[in-house]
Amino acid sequence: MTDTKAPKIQKSEAEWRKELTPMQYAVLREKATERPFSGEYEHTTTKGTYVCAGCGQSLFESDTKFDSGCGWPSFTAPVRDTHIDEERDFSHGMIRTEVLCSSCQGHLGHVFPDGPGPTGLRYCINSAALKLSPK
What we know:
Layout: H1 13-19, H2 22-30, E1 48-52, E2 58-61, E3 65-66, E4 74-75, E5 84-89, E6 96-101, E7 107-112, E8 122-125, E9 130-134
């Protein structure tokens, strides 16, 4: 199976504002962060696929979700490595790895090297950046 990148989605800021809720816009387009323990999917255990709230690209499967206690939905791995992009984030006096949707470049959250096996990663993702497609 070929793991190719999805086509890039480009929209004007006016189009994004029209299509997204204010919180989704703040997170996806302005790199905001939800308050911890406030997101819709923090405690969700429904089986399914989490897709980008901005463009619908599949991002994470529910079977990779775990309760990290950090206040945001956490996952051990993306659906496909090509569905996310990573960039160094030097904001707020920290050095972190930002996670972006590879299709629309929406800000999703950050990834940290303190997760459980098998990857050892914790993708800490804003609920507002996600939509759950139940199985």
